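Worked example 3 (structure in, sequence out).
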């Protein structure tokens, strides 16, 4: 009788082990899925915010004669005011592609600017500095076009040690623009952030950076 009881216990333990393993697998899979959805949602939200503000700035910088649009209208709502303080958007000022520290500039109209009060830009060092410590959504948008019979190569933009964006360029004789967006979420101290541009040893002859469709964006999450 005791031998039969022991045999039943062993068999019950064996049968319960797979069930516990499957539960762990389900919980692990659910955790990974939730994390993926959260990160994806943050990325989409960040891109929507940057797209919205860029559109507002673009419309403000191109007023129509009949109905002039003032950039000050962007700060009418509390959410827009928050963006104007905690959001920075800079556009490049140099179209030539060579090894350098990328020079940027803010988009200005009237007395307003795309550089929020939470940020400082040093035009001598070409550095962007957030004044507040915190978690930031950071993105770089790069658009490159070929002017005439361009060779293949890789263009690299690196924001300090926080974000690296590699743009693969193929041999192009049709002058088709190449665009890429790179983003990250990172904790930043109050530090100077510069963007280093790196090209292949043979250079990127006849490739140029499109100034109006390239840029660096950053905003405070928490």
């Amino acid at each position: 009788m005791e031998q039969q009881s022991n045999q039943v216990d062993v068999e019950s333990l064996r049968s319960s082990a797979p069930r516990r393993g499957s539960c762990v697998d389900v919980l692990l899979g659910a955790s990974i899925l939730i994390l993926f959805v959260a990160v994806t949602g943050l990325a989409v939200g960040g891109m929507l915010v940057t797209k919205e503000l860029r559109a507002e700035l673009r419309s403000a910088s191109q007023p129509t004669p009949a109905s002039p649009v003032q950039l000050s209208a962007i700060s009418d709502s509390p959410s827009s005011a928050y963006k104007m303080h905690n959001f920075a958007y800079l556009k490049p000022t140099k179209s030539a592609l060579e090894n350098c520290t990328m020079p940027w500039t803010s988009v200005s109209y009237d007395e307003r600017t795309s550089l929020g009060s939470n940020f400082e830009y040093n035009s001598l060092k070409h550095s962007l500095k957030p004044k507040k410590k915190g978690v930031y959504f950071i993105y770089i948008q790069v658009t490159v076009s070929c002017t005439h019979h361009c060779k293949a190569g890789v263009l690299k933009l690196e924001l300090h040690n926080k974000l690296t964006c590699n743009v693969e360029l193929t041999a192009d004789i049709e002058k088709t623009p190449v665009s890429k967006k790179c983003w990250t979420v990172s904790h930043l101290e109050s530090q100077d952030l510069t963007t280093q541009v790196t090209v292949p040893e043979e250079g990127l002859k006849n490739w140029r950076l499109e100034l109006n469709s390239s840029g660096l964006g950053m905003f405070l999450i928490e």
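Notes: The two ends are 66 Å apart (CA to CA). Confidence is low (pLDDT under 50) at residues 56-76.
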